[in-house]
Design brief:
The protein is α/β, with parallel strands linked by helices. Helices cover about 45% and strands about 15% of the residues.
Amino acid sequence: MSAPLRAALYLRVSTGRQADNDLSIPDQRRQAESYCKGRGWELVADFVEPGQSATDDRRPEFQRMIDAATTKPPAFDVIVVHSYSRFFRDQFQLEFYVRRLAKSGVRLVSITQELGDDPMSNMIRQIMALFDEYQSKENAKHTLRAMKENARQGFWNGARAPIGYRIVDAGQRGQKTKKTLEIDPIQAETVRLIFKLAREGDGSSGPMGVKSIVTHLNAKGIRTRDGGRWGLGALHKVLTRTTYIGRHRFNTHHWKTGERKPEAEIVEMVVPPIIEASEFEAIQTLLKSRSPALTAPRVVSGPTLLTGICFCAACGMAMTLRTGKSGRYRYYTCSTKARQGETGCKGRTVPMEKLDTLVADHIERRLLKPERLEEILSSVLHRREERAERRAEHIAALRKRAAEADAKLKRLYEAIENGVANLSDPMLKDRVAELTAIRDQSRIDAERAAAEMEKAGPSLTPQALATFARQARKGMRSDTGGYRRDHLRALAQRVEVDEREVRIMGSKGALLRTLVAASGGKSAGIGVPSFIPKWRARRDSNPWPLPSEGSALSS
């Protein structure tokens, strides 16, 4: 009498379908065991795959089963599934693995779709697999359409919330509980700190790059949401994620390949903002300006006064330094013109000393006047006051959260002392640990936020503006009669040389940070220019003419 066939069960359900259509794991097991018993097969193994899609083979239990089936000798003779769709929902992959198993003498059997081994049965199996594949793609398409509409209405689709947010219930709609994002007051403070470091540094340096911020956070013991150390990729994602200005982008990549989807398929979901849009855009410009693909390191670190901030208005390319007469004469010239001649660009070539003097003198005479500074910064100062009020409210919320957690802890301790609760209860221990963590983290974040408010510096009065203007005019001049490069770059971040005029542009934010630092007696923290033309409000506000003959500049 021959030995009974050895059978292995493969049981799988997709996420969210644990009990739909009689396909739960217990139902599959019950039906498969009854099927094997009726045929006298011996069950020797089972492989359970909860919550895994069958559209690819990236399934741990599936791979473990295939390895056991293709070893010599195989661990079993037949694999039993509820239906072929439990094994695969891809026709090509299904046939590939059926043939691979057959080479090892192992058969695949469906208890609801019994087929033989003849050519007709093989063709029917392939047709069934094609229908399963089509149905899977249609289901995915309908599901994605529903999720996109859900996002348009401002509801969260179930992924993990970005750092700085938490998922909360937004009410019941039918049988589904809708979710939305709200700001997590603890983690949001870490996000604000990251953007602050990128924008203006830690008070002892200028704007910090991604590597410097990662080093700073890890050195200060500021961990990720999971308690781990920060990495470059995670931090860059925070700095470039539009979620933090209230625009969460959903459906940006294909989940299988990671390939970026067209803009037409991406949906923006409205969420509470943590960072102001103007601040976010400034950080994006800073990140781009540091990119080696866009700006070589020597451009932002060269010794020449205007290197890296001077551009040709005709073609938009940088003005580079050229010399003549064995280095006796130095010029700023359009880099396109220098490489390709006038066929590439007819941009200007300007003596370095004259352009340096023109830009520095114009900033001294036009920008560094108290009334002009007050006019430029009026809107920024107003937003600064609003931000300070929001920060104060945030600190109060953190302290309230810490106080509430502390009060709850005290009540638990009293219950333990009075014998009402037992500390050995695991749930009680977990609750005590959770409340302790909330209290301690809230206190730390509140102290850090309060310290940041102090670092923001004093209020800016007319006297402070006048003092700053006087000190800045003096600070721009070096002892040798030239100009201090860092001081000039704190006031102007872009210079465009046109055929008949020079346009000087700068960032209100950079100007304000320099002013606050000077008023508070702290380092201005001048760093890489941000290239955001904000304080030149009108086309005619501060261009300087380039007469074609003689007076200010000559080619």
